[in-house]
């Protein structure tokens, strides 16, 4: 290369580097002007429609950009949110709602009664509580742009509980043009009236989601409490960055590259606790619950005596110790509607606390069980539940059951559990899962207590007319004391028939840098009220 | 040359067609249901069935294939089942980190490996040669994720020189780009430095025994001229071949590095899509990978012709 050419090359490289440095510095400066909250969610957001799916990621995304008519406070009392006021007629058949004035969607359009009615109609097609509410609904009437009515066929005790439901599917309010999308299809846009706006241009499914403060949002004046109250946004921008490797997530938090890690792995908590700039906070105080679900269609689990034998072979402590480890973060809990909710009760909760192998063996022998193979589906890739099948297998072998643990990834399990086929054609007997307490805190939302069998039931297809009658009674009842009595009866029936086996409650703490103030405990992960100093 | 390129490109069409059919069938025959994943945990079987019908997954496989092949013929890779974003757009979002990491790794590995491979061959049997070969064994042996964590521990956590994770596009500036890409590049380079150094050494040793090298020495040419102009040029064919294959492997095989450093590349995209049974993404990315392999093989063949005039196709 001749010297003149070399000098030109050096000049070009030098100029490029200089421009690059300047561009980098400029980007950095712009970023520093804004208060950016950086958050590691528990998974990557891919489905932006929180009505289409019950995935918690989509629910949490929903809370960022949408708002709700009602919400719950930390005593699980339903409070108005988008609604200014409401009235109930003397016969309890007509509810009249008035929206708060001045609410706008992110595209500038006002929130109207038509938007609300369309949104609720779509939600009512997919959500368990929504379906129940709509089965009691005669009609929704638009009175004017800000006022609408719900007319019931008969009194229904869960109208406000349904509209203020804090977890999946949350009845978020969307513009009518979006809400008119069929309930089995993704909405075409991400426009809500909530405290943050979705930045579509920066969305990378599964990788990054960016939200900006919605300047048009008018928070309520009440202090924030769970999903209710004033949703005051104190940062300019929130970035959700999905980090799939827990070690990398921890390092990034320690280094201050991110501010909040929603769900740190339990085995990393001791290391995180040692860090002077990091706090471990329990921001989901209602907790989560593990569940062992059996398939009632598959012999021998179609026999209640076999299911009862399994119930007595199980003890929750084994599962909780294996999966969570630290007793600070779990609780033995027989209450199927959660151990920190208004319907908590231990009545009827037999077995589970201490395994009785002798009794379970005797019950199994009396059941007529002849050593048929029991297939347990075991998801190896889902760290939050992957130990549970490995605990079940020896416990059930100990009472003489012929157990086959079939390992698979979670999504294979999700596809396979929908199969009602016999075992030799891909069927199954047992799977384990986890639910947020907020998703199971009454007989209507708790999918595990449905007794609808193959038509409308949860996987496992428990068919039980008695429990369905109790669920209906609960839905009709408007007196909280009587509701609690019915819920207790549901719990007793669940244990008697062994719809599922509760495996205990656990609490997933979050790791937060100490300069982050105002994080709110809530049934869903919410990111308003947060200050970054 | 032009004929070579055109004939290879034409020959690539049936290859891609076979890949498309194979991938499509393999995915449809593997367990898992995107509709169940889409609906979520509390979905009823009816809801899942409705979603499955909406996605067309309830139709016969041949019918689904014809629909997809028709889209493909028009250059449409389809939309993600979960996010509903066009697959081409999603690949476009993820390709820059992967290409950047592959290129920086390759560049760094070649810059380091070729000279040390030449030196090892030149000093064959000496302590430098043995040292380089020993290091190359270490380079082969350390798993990428172990090395990644070690580098993060020292350079990010202790010395605070580089960020722990993430990717910055070149459009955000050269400095942020280099800051983020440095550690992943270093991590991934190790194995390629080891590979390229060994190949360079072996190829050089074969050439250094040739008569024309002895002649060059006899002519009184200095050592560096003999090594670089005469030996390396003639040893280049196998080295280029391995570098080409290395690039192809880097494009498709950096998922562990992408995960350790949280780089949103194509490797992670396809792994996530497999776990979520997002068929259109898997199909699109595998087609892309096969296209890249075809092009890299073509580039290697062209390089052979350029480097060695004796080679004819």
- As for the CATH topology of the largest domain in chain B, it is MetI-like fold
Poorly predicted regions of chain B are none
Radius of gyration of chain B: 24 Å
Largest interface: chains, residues each: A-B, 67 and 56 residues
When the domains of chain B are counted, the total is 2
Measured as a percent range, the helix fraction of chain A is 25-40%
From the helix content, strand content and strand pairing of chain A, which structural class follows? alpha+beta
CATH class of the largest domain in chain B: Mainly Alpha
Q: Strand percentage of chain A, roughly?
A: 15-25%
Do you know the CATH topology of the largest domain in chain A?
Dipeptide-binding Protein, domain 3
Which architecture name of the largest domain in chain B does CATH use?
Orthogonal Bundle
Question: What is the level 1 CATH name of the largest domain in chain A?
Answer: Alpha Beta
Descriptive tags:
heterodimer, A: 533 residues, D-Maltodextrin-Binding Protein, domain 2, Dipeptide-binding Protein, domain 1, Dipeptide-binding Protein, domain 3, 4-stranded antiparallel β-sheet, disordered N terminus, B: 313 residues, mainly alpha, MetI-like fold, globular
